[in-house]
Amino acid sequence: MIPQDEEALLIRSRALCEAMEDEDDWLKREVLAHAGNRWSFGVIHVLKEGGRLRHAEIRRRLEGVTQRMLTRTLRQLERDGLILRHDFEEVSPRVEYELTPLGEAFLLRIIPMWLWIFEHAEDFRQARESHFRSSSE
User: Fold this and answer.
1) Would the pTM count as exceeding 0.90?
2) Mean pLDDT, rounded, for 65-88
3) Pair 98, 86: CB distance under 8 Å
4) Which of 83, 77, 74 is nearest to 55 (CA)?
5) Cα Rg for the chain, rounded, in angstroms?
6) What is the largest CA-CA distance in the chain?
């Protein structure tokens, strides 16, 4: 039996899926892509911990990210309203980034999902291995 609050959540989720238009589906996938992208998630996490930061400082805190990938990630996060870009329009360019309330809410909702995925990583690996084994027979 499904608990009442879980059942209500499933009913609401089903109604949203049935009412979803193509544009909403695209938006949902684009925003959820940030949740599965290590650099998007990393930038959001770094800004939550560090507050308002410059590009170079974000890059220092994200081991392995390239200049190009960080710039691309920052633009996508800004486009989706998860971070703000502050351009001080000075002769020596100075730009800082900060997490928006929407970005903070996104992070706090995604962390439990990430933790759940990591806790069940071996289950996912075993399921995939079993699937590939049975499909190759």
Assistant:
1) no
2) 95
3) yes
4) 74
5) 19
6) 65
State which amino acid sits at residue 71: T
Residue 135, token pair as written in the block: 């499909």
DSSP the chain: ---HHHHHHHHHHHHHHHH--HHHHHHHHHHHHHHH-HHHHHHHHHHHHH-SEEHHHHHHHSTT--HHHHHHHHHHHHHTTSEEEEE---SS--EEEEE-HHHHHHHHHHHHHHHHHHHTHHHHHHHHHHHHHHH--
Angle in degrees, CA 75, 79, 85, rounded to 5: 60
pLDDT tens column, 30-49: 888 877 789 999 999 999 99
pLDDT tens track for 119-136: 999 999 999 999 988 887
- The proportion of the chain whose per-residue pLDDT surpasses 90, expressed as a percent, equals 58
Full set of structural domains in the chain with CATH? 4-135 (1.10.10.10)
Question: DSSP per residue over 57-96, as a string?
Answer: HHHHHSTT--HHHHHHHHHHHHHTTSEEEEE---SS--EE
